Amino acid sequence: MSTIPAALDALVALAERAWPEDVMILDGPPTVDVEPDVIAIGYSGTPSEPDVRNTLAQEQLTMEPDRESYDVMCMASAWRGDAHRGGRPDTRTVRERALELIAGFRAELARDDRLGGAVMLARMSTLDMMTDQTKAGPVATVRFVVHIDAFA
User: Fold this and answer.
1) Phi, psi (5° rounding) for residue 140?
2) Using CA atoms, how far apart are residues 27 and 11, in angstroms rounded to an integer?
3) pTM of the model
4) 46-74 burial: b if 16+ Cβ within 10 Å, else e
5) Are 19 and 100 in contact (CB under 8 A)?
């Protein structure tokens, strides 16, 4: 049995603890209109990319347990239609907010890097930030990866 379902549930709960108010926390892709601040767990944001990538390895010449090493793709996004500075759309506001969302998540992950005992270790391993000017205002999206090591 894989630890992936329990780890995803634990990451969603962790994000909810990090941001109990004012941030929409999603388990997977958005299915409704999203709030200006959103964190999606187990969602790459790209249809051609996996949401979770797992590598299984046998440990110590036994058939069980399998060691799992996987990456959970996640995303944090901030949008402000009214963010302006000097009469122009202000990307800085959304960029700082998106990174603030990541910082809150990362701090909570540091407090519970075993995800309540579901895994051996969970840590943020990479992040990519993209900003864009839309007709509705500036948006900043940070795609980040939570790397997990566990025994199935």
Assistant:
1) -125, 130
2) 9
3) 0.90
4) eeeeebbebeeeeeeeeeeebebebbbbb
5) no
